[in-house]
Amino acid sequence: MFLDYFALGLLVFVTLVIFYGIIAIHDIPYEIAKSREHPHQDAIHYAGWVSLFTFHALWPFLWIWATLWRKERGWGFQKLQQEQHDIHHRVDALIDQVEQLQEELKQLKAQQKPAVSPTHDAEHREEDN
């Protein structure tokens, strides 16, 4: 008789823990959104409740949606565009430097060729033999 009541109590306890655990898990994206001061935190919260009825099929998308926003950078796209713009200008500057160095290299090679005389080459060939 005692074991029947113990088993019933254990069943009720486990059911309540699972029920509240599921509710706590579904609120994680909302808590993330709230801590980041997300502009859509209410929508994330309501979608989390809807996700309960879809067996948490929406939950991963809500988590991603909640984590994309940061107060200091917003969605992050402006910073990405600025970084791409800066990188583009750096690459252009490097291309200009490479072209300048190639031109200087051509000039140095052109200056070096007349300095080598054909008789000088012939003397080296005789020494090698």
TrEMBL record:
<feature type="transmembrane region" description="Helical">
    <location>
        <begin position="6"/>
        <end position="25"/>
    </location>
</feature>
<keyword id="KW-1133">Transmembrane helix</keyword>
<dbReference type="InterPro" id="IPR011223">
    <property type="entry name" value="UCP028770"/>
</dbReference>
<dbReference type="Pfam" id="PF11742">
    <property type="entry name" value="DUF3302"/>
</dbReference>
<keyword id="KW-0472">Membrane</keyword>
<feature type="transmembrane region" description="Helical">
    <location>
        <begin position="46"/>
        <end position="66"/>
    </location>
</feature>
<protein>
    <submittedName>
        <fullName>GTPase</fullName>
    </submittedName>
</protein>
<feature type="region of interest" description="Disordered">
    <location>
        <begin position="107"/>
        <end position="129"/>
    </location>
</feature>
<feature type="compositionally biased region" description="Basic and acidic residues">
    <location>
        <begin position="120"/>
        <end position="129"/>
    </location>
</feature>
<keyword id="KW-0812">Transmembrane</keyword>
